[in-house]
Design a protein that fits this description.
The protein is of the alpha/beta class. A six-stranded parallel beta sheet has the order 3-2-1-4-5-6, sandwiched between helices. Helix 3 links the parallel strand 2 and strand 3. Helix 2 packs antiparallel against helix 9, helix 4 crosses helix 5 and helix 5 crosses helix 8. The longest helix is centred in the middle third of the chain and has 17 residues. It starts with 6 loop residues before the first helix and ends in a 9-residue tail after the last helix.
Length: about 270
């Protein structure tokens, strides 16, 4: 597992939008909250960190400055890695209501629904921003279908993909990774599991007193559910053992891509 950050820093991330305030190199394009779509794709295989990431995203969505954020979450966007799936189906509707798709059970239908939504966004002058909290296999398929539906779309201008993990790239089918890198505006950022590299490093090295930092009954329920499910599946039946979580910590490092995408809005959050 990757190097973990201190308890103090992870608490700061939960308490006051460290989720959003990261210093990485500025991208050419910037997320526009009034017209763009944030697509959060969670592979959920075989690490349980996406459960914590979903809870972290719920924390972000709770902030009033993000009440108008146009987003869609997709679970099960895994690649060619071996190992068992980590079922997030109890957590996802709790966090996202009906605003999520289950690519594990309905891959093709999920691709089609993303394409339909993406077409409307692009037709209205917006862009799609993909927080690739997993592999790019799913992205490559919906982008290819998007191009087939409307050959006039310039996907390198309209689709922005953000990836933080070398491992995620290594377990994406090679041809699909190359396609995604070629036809989209692909951003490879530093690994969110690490510290001192410009990402928030949203991963703790021990138990975090997060309960005292949340004064919200729903978010407390979300985090309790994410942690319970994470403990239930962590390292079980050959799944990846997340050592930080096994020691009682939190790991929502896959939220790093969301932080990168929304960083231009961070001045509204922490003053």
């Amino acid at each position: 597992m990757k190097k973990a950050i201190s308890k103090k820093k992870i608490i700061s991330g939960l308490a006051c939008a460290l989720l959003f305030s990261i210093g990485v190199n500025a991208q050419k394009a910037a997320f526009e909250i009034d017209k763009d779509l944030l697509l959060v794709q969670l592979d959920c295989k075989t690490d349980i960190d996406d459960l914590h990431t979903a809870a972290g995203f719920a924390t972000l969505l709770n902030h009033p400055d993000y009440k108008d954020l146009n987003y869609l979450a997709v679970a099960g966007t895994y690649g060619i890695q071996e190992g068992l799936y980590v079922p997030p189906n109890e957590l996802m509707p709790m966090v996202f209501g009906e605003n999520w798709l289950d690519a594990d059970k309905e891959w093709k239908a999920s691709v089609d629904k993303v394409v339909t939504k993406a077409l409307k966004i692009i037709e209205n002058g917006g862009s799609i921003w993909v927080a690739e909290a997993g592999q790019s296999d799913f992205t490559s398929e919906w982008v290819k279908e998007l191009s087939r539906k409307d050959i006039s779309i310039k996907t390198r201008e309209s689709v922005h993909v953000v990836q933080h993990s070398d491992w995620n790239e290594s377990v994406t089918k090679t041809v699909k990774l190359m396609y995604t890198k070629t036809v989209t505006d692909y951003h490879k950022i530093a690994d969110g599991n690490e510290v001192g590299n410009g990402t928030p490093g949203l991963k703790s090295d021990g138990k975090v007193d997060w309960e005292s930092k949340l004064n919200d009954e729903h978010l407390t329920k979300v985090w309790n559910t994410a942690i319970r499910l994470g403990n239930q599946y962590n390292g079980k039946d050959g799944r990846c053992l997340n050592e930080s979580v096994d020691e009682g910590g939190l790991d929502f490092s896959d939220l790093s891509e969301v932080c990168y995408i929304l960083k231009g809005l961070s001045h509204k959050v922490c003053k």
